[in-house]
Amino acid sequence: MAHHDFTPDHYHTTIGWHDPVLEIDSGDTVATTTVDARGRDQTGERVTPRGNPMTGPFFVRGAEEGDTLIVHLEELTPNRPWGWTGGQVAANVLEPGFTPEFHDNPKPQFDDDARPSFRWNVDLEAGTVQLATGDGPMTRTPIALDPMVGCFGVGPAGGQAISTATSSTHGGNMDYRGFRQGTQVQFPVFAPGALFHLGDGHATQGDGEIVGTGVEISFAVRFKVELIKGRRIGWPRALDDTWMMAVGNARPLDQCVQHATTEMLSWLTSEEIGLDSRTAHHLLGQCVEYDLGNVFDPAYTMVCKIRRDQVDALRDA
Amino acid sequence: MAHHDFTPDHYHTTIGWHDPVLEIDSGDTVATTTVDARGRDQTGERVTPRGNPMTGPFFVRGAEEGDTLIVHLEELTPNRPWGWTGGQVAANVLEPGFTPEFHDNPKPQFDDDARPSFRWNVDLEAGTVQLATGDGPMTRTPIALDPMVGCFGVGPAGGQAISTATSSTHGGNMDYRGFRQGTQVQFPVFAPGALFHLGDGHATQGDGEIVGTGVEISFAVRFKVELIKGRRIGWPRALDDTWMMAVGNARPLDQCVQHATTEMLSWLTSEEIGLDSRTAHHLLGQCVEYDLGNVFDPAYTMVCKIRRDQVDALRDA
Amino acid sequence: MAHHDFTPDHYHTTIGWHDPVLEIDSGDTVATTTVDARGRDQTGERVTPRGNPMTGPFFVRGAEEGDTLIVHLEELTPNRPWGWTGGQVAANVLEPGFTPEFHDNPKPQFDDDARPSFRWNVDLEAGTVQLATGDGPMTRTPIALDPMVGCFGVGPAGGQAISTATSSTHGGNMDYRGFRQGTQVQFPVFAPGALFHLGDGHATQGDGEIVGTGVEISFAVRFKVELIKGRRIGWPRALDDTWMMAVGNARPLDQCVQHATTEMLSWLTSEEIGLDSRTAHHLLGQCVEYDLGNVFDPAYTMVCKIRRDQVDALRDA
Amino acid sequence: MAHHDFTPDHYHTTIGWHDPVLEIDSGDTVATTTVDARGRDQTGERVTPRGNPMTGPFFVRGAEEGDTLIVHLEELTPNRPWGWTGGQVAANVLEPGFTPEFHDNPKPQFDDDARPSFRWNVDLEAGTVQLATGDGPMTRTPIALDPMVGCFGVGPAGGQAISTATSSTHGGNMDYRGFRQGTQVQFPVFAPGALFHLGDGHATQGDGEIVGTGVEISFAVRFKVELIKGRRIGWPRALDDTWMMAVGNARPLDQCVQHATTEMLSWLTSEEIGLDSRTAHHLLGQCVEYDLGNVFDPAYTMVCKIRRDQVDALRDA
Fold this sequence. Notes:
The structure is a homotetramer. Chain A is mainly β. Chain A has helices at 253-268, 277-287, 308-316; strands at residues 3-5, 14-15, 22-24, 29-34, 54-60, 68-78, 82-85, 118-123, 128-131, 143-144, 148-153, 162-163, 167-168, 171-173, 184-188, 196-202, 216-217, 219-228, 237-239, 243-250, 289-292, 300-307. Chain A contains three helices and 22 strands. Chain A has a nine-stranded mixed beta sheet. In chain A, strands 3, 5, 11, 13, 14, 16 and 17 form a seven-stranded mixed beta sheet that branches. Chains in contact: A-B, A-C, A-D, B-C, B-D, C-D. Chains A and B meet through helix 1, helix 2, strand 21 and helix 3 of A and helix 1, helix 2, strand 21 and helix 3 of B.
């Protein structure tokens, strides 16, 4: 149950079976930092190439294929006072041929802007995020700070190294708003040591990351790992105070729903939870909810969720 | 602003350009009843063939193509003390080839049960719904009553008559939990008189209607119609106290997202709301939420929604 | 086995349970004409509103739900010397956000051109189709005449009236190049009398109808109907000299593949054909081919096909 | 223009930036062998773990990101007299919930059979493939030998290592029947040296690889590489005597169509081919064909193709 302070000196834009940056044990806590999606750190300096650079991987001793790695997101704190976003809903999220028109003339924020990007001020004390580019009404109307991690996961199956632009059973670029401080996320382990990576922090984000970004920012993070030996799961799962969540990453969204729902049924009827199959089907039928993760990236994300108190009531009934 | 009490004596299992059952004016209120998805009324008697039979259509004087019909769902009350559900998550919602096993032996509730159906007690006073078939833990664990209308809409484009099993721009079988009492729903008008139909009440339902049913029940309903001349919309929209909602009905879900998001952008930048295009994109990018309607029927449903207070703040900023 | 010459005086832009224009018997032949997709006849005059107007419906005596109607396409002959096309691959067929640029300045051909349309000369004797608009290389390079029917089908299930823009189990706007002269097409019967409609002839067309049209033209047609009592099929099927074909109409194309393949397995293992299930799976596994119908309209089309001589060899083996 | 005989001693089940097994120059020819999808070589012995093991990668000197690598498939010859297949159409290719029944009782061929597999005799001289398991009619009815390569490609973008179960812009497990002897295939180069891998030979296969396999077999192969410096392409392309082909790999198939069609438009209007945009759209609109590659694996494949003689005629017109 050691604590590790880790300062990254390099990053990865794939999640893969890379050389670990640190070996830790189940129960350990790590405090570290992440750079933003374009490789800029808390000073705003670009320290690594763009594309959701990951801090890590962290090697969890004893983890091997067939286990489950639980990552407790104990702290997710923006560590600089500004982030940036895209400013246009992506073409794949709009009807084919619909081309929005804009009447402002935004200036590039970065030398690698393909489309214009927009600067937002992030005020931790006030708990707000506010547009700082242009002079439209968004610059006068703060929205709520709600930090979340966009991309994180473990070394994928079969020795793959998968771009941090996308997602699969190992996690990856899911951009789900539910991955916020206080949530625990469970990953299937494929690689020796699990090889946990994380990065791509957002100060806030709408469902779907439909402009291709949240408010992209660097983070100070602290997480605790917990290894469950011999528990094989199919897809990332998560728990917060209210919800059990199962994640499906694929295209189209219909397939995400299939993965997430099947995973949730497996969870509810597992030894861990212990509902009988009919009860699990009734419960989902009348009480399930679904959230939308990313609909911007090569694989989309849907989350199937059910209230923990409802599950607990059924276990006790 | 008349009030009409209407007692149906026949029903339709398509939403089409059928002979109206009643002519009403913009501002009028109608109190009527709907039968359940299998055509059973408040006494439990089958009064019409199964398949989401619709009450209506109601002809709104003056409505013509290019207008918008607003339907205020003033009352949606189950009018009998029981409903029924399917009890198995549908195959199209699960991974291909995944076949759940069940260890109970449920008896058919109805003579036309293809798969077993399950009876639920509905207690209006307690505000609960509780499984009454079998002896599993769901029979000892009530869930919350949350009545909603599964299928409703207006005469479709071009004189079509579309099965109440599916949905499109005219509305139809959307099975969205947000269509509850107190919500106003806006439909594009295609047919002279708009031709509003409704039915398929649910005492409650999970997202996606993934067992193929909510708790299917007959309703006493009261609705008010309001006609907006010359406002052409593309897809159903809705308002409740908190949310602006735009609906997309299609397959796959990706296409629902495209329709719903495009419709929401059109709404936000319309004369009615008046945001500039960049503000609308920023707002959706960082604050949009999506809900899942039906993923059981031939066309699926996604809802794009944004908080009304955020929109109002931007209009005032 | 009567022959009927039928001259249409009205058309439908839905396929539905409309009043029949003619009653015929199984074995009868009908010679008639169809107008083009915009309602223009052999003289080029607009005689009915645009949108794939259908000739019919033809009522086949004795046909009822659960039967199969076979339509032999005995003759499909363009009856005027010109057709027209769109000139731009549709946005839904291209990567989101890809916007092609054109350097010509085509003139509208019709007063209802939303986008420019293009005129093509059709030479029955030479067997060619040749662009007549502009002066590009296509105007100097004839392509082969290959007439086919874009939209045809029977009254849909449950009394629906479905737009001729789309397709489903009843047939409809499938735009499949295999529906040419000499092919027999089988439809599931849903309505009393089957209610056969046809129209939307193309002088030629690429797979997918990706510019939204083939070479749209009016036709002289002759077809023979054959009624198979008590044979229930799920989707349109077809036979030509070489192929057995099963059609799936839906979105996304993945679902078309599912419908078409399931229908083909049902056919191969039916009493009519009589293969055992394993043989049918092996045969499809190593020998199946798929063709693409429409990817332009609300429902897409895929065709699963297998060589008749291979099936015959297995039945004899 | 050297010739290399290469005998593999290890294989990869990802296509990635692995250490090259051989360095070659543009113009060189390589003769080598591939094992079957389960790692069995020409003797039938398992020499490497299952999962489409790849021979390679071959490093092409001078290749770098932004180039195109052309691979001429000069010889694809099964080098043992038997292959094997699955025997059941995959669940994802059939309607949800459709479960085929079989009345034979096939024995496993291999110790790692999850489902039964089936043995086929391959006769190079006769040019036939014939089922050797069971006693059904397929065992008495040979089908045509038509060797093709199921999985091949180059090191993917951004240093990824992608499972040989799937496919993307780098190629991969496309299972397209058009990748047969005599075809040249063009890949976008992402990695230094291009890093060409190949394997997964099929003695024959139906469209879609719908039983999850072709007739899986080991190959003797000979290929020639050709490097086109500075030609950046987006997706694999191919040429045979008749066709220009552009490949899209994704899910759903609709997205494959989008990638393949956009790539074909880019090709036709490139400096290499030189058609104007309008001509390219007309040509595809009326003459394009589409073929189906894999619909079994995580990413599906569609091929957009056009006749070379038609393109040549337009360039000369």
